[in-house]
């Protein structure tokens, strides 16, 4: 049986991104999804700055920007008063806003780019079992198609992007520890007539629950709310009338809700796997972590999981990197996931509380907190997933630094840097006087590309930086660091 390099299970945003990256890097993939057709539900709305930075240079970001609605602030209100805005426009990115775009549209754009790269999603194909192959050099994957046929294929690696109820997690006995929050939530995508701001997220806090509104453009909004009084009763999906009553109970702005496209009710699960890797299977997206939708982070986290994993997998598969590089997917992403779950849990607790002392405290404290620059800057970076990084992780050890930048830090997409990146390997940017470093790089053909770029971090003579395909700093230093760069490359990569 021929071995497929990578089988990707699930064609949601996570699986689509994995296929997009791997196929771009020349890796053959099979991407299967048990659903016969793509979902039309809008689900995740928020596309965050870091996702846009990464997807722009991968052929998808510009079309997302053309279709989405930009929001530069999230304003908090309570009992008819404005508490203040979270100034999202402070994000240190060229995309200093949250882009509102229905998940179905993001998936469509990813699928179209994937088709341009020659990969078609195999729909109506369910993975029912996975097992290590007899020679231990691969994974046997059982595929069950809608037509009733069963096929067992062998893959060198499998990416489990099969969502929150992951079949692969169960098949491999991987735990999904965490908790289910008691509160019930409702959401609806509909039209709003009235004076509701359409260029910002609005969060209306009341003693008994909250309503948040997300502008989708052209008068359409996503409404999300808690429903402690049980207004949305019964088993069916929330109706316009129920949402109108829920809205009027909490929000001081008179509006008319109509033309409902989609509504749903849900509870929040806060869980993650203990390891993102089980042998030759890598978990990503909702298969690996689920959490509160506070802050619109879930889909973005899954996309960025795959941008972290794909270049490592591609380099190991074609013999340019040592297999140990694959362990850094777990050691880099898991702390980011844990931090994000912690952040969304805090947000959820603050917004959910129906305790009158907590409500009084949030009304009193919010304006003070939002008046502080440090709070505003930290919140904007956190929302945009711009402060996440891999400093101090294994791959960053012994790799130097440049100015305030340390290996594992995000390198900003400034001055055309991302357009100069080699998205298939490491890119060396070297200033005047860094010839010894360029010489080292020449010995690593296929692993390191030397590209011209002259931005802020390279102002000091002899300075250089090595940037990963996912836009994080790999290594950096001065002209005297040739030997340590050589050692660092030897530890993780292989000469051709
Ligand atoms: C009601 C709702 C509202 C949400 N709102 C937001 C939001 O505002 N912001 C945000 O960031 N996130 C939000 N999310 C979360 C967001 O939708 C997820 O984080 C995102 O979809 C995760 O993408 P994924 O590709 O990892 O998984 P999924 O999108 O779940 O995709 C998994 C895919 O795997 C397929 N699959 C499953 N099992 C198998 C199998 N055995 N074989 C083959 N295929 C299989 C499924 O058919 C599916 O297509 C929301 C989710 C819901 C349900």
Low-confidence runs of at least 5 consecutive residues = none
Tell me roughly what share of residues is in helical segments: 25-40%
What's the overall average pLDDT, rounded? 94
From the 3D structure, determine the CATH topology of the largest domain: FAD/NAD(P)-binding domain
Ligands, deduplicated:
flavin-adenine dinucleotide
| Count of beta strands | 23
Q: What is the highest CATH level, the class of the largest domain? A: Alpha Beta
Number of domains: 3
Q: What's the CATH H-level superfamily name of the largest domain?
A: FAD/NAD(P)-binding domain
How many DSSP helices?
A: 13
Radius of gyration: 24 Å
- Proportion of residues in extended strands: 25-35%
- The helix/strand class is alpha+beta
Specify the overall morphology.
Answer: globular
The CA-CA distance between the termini, in Å, is: 28 Å
Sheet having the most strands = 8 strands, mixed
Query: Which second-level CATH architecture of the largest domain applies?
Result: 3-Layer(bba) Sandwich
Summarize the structure.
With 496 residues, the protein is α+β, with helices and mostly antiparallel strands.
